[in-house]
Amino acid sequence: MIIEVFKTNVQEESQCAIIIEKLLEHYPSSSINFDLEDCDKILRIHAPNFSNTKIIDILNSHGYFCEALP
Question: Is the Cβ–Cβ distance between 5 and 67 less than 8 Å?
Fold first, then answer.
């Protein structure tokens, strides 16, 4: 399993739910959550395999900033 952490500009729980639903369409066997309390509005993905570029593209296509954290 891979765990990746992304910085986003997502602000609301309702936005998180929509994004998680979209990501699960592409990565159904993954565990995805947001930490909106963190200053970087963290998106955390735990999955067998995925593409950082695809994750970023999905968020960008919905109007959100997203970048992988080192």
Answer: no
CA distance 16 to 56: 14
Structure tokens at 31: 């565990």
Any idea what the Cα angle at residue 52 is, between residues 41 and 17, rounded to 5°? 45
- CA 12 vs. chain centroid, Å, equals 13
Residue 21 has pLDDT above 90, yes or no: yes
What's the pTM value of the predicted model, to 2 decimals?
0.94
Q: What angle do CA 49, 30, 5 make, to 5 degrees?
A: 75
What token pair was written down for 63? Answer: 């109007």
Quick one: pLDDT at residue 12?
Answer: 97
Q: How many CB atoms lie within 10 A of CB 22?
A: 15
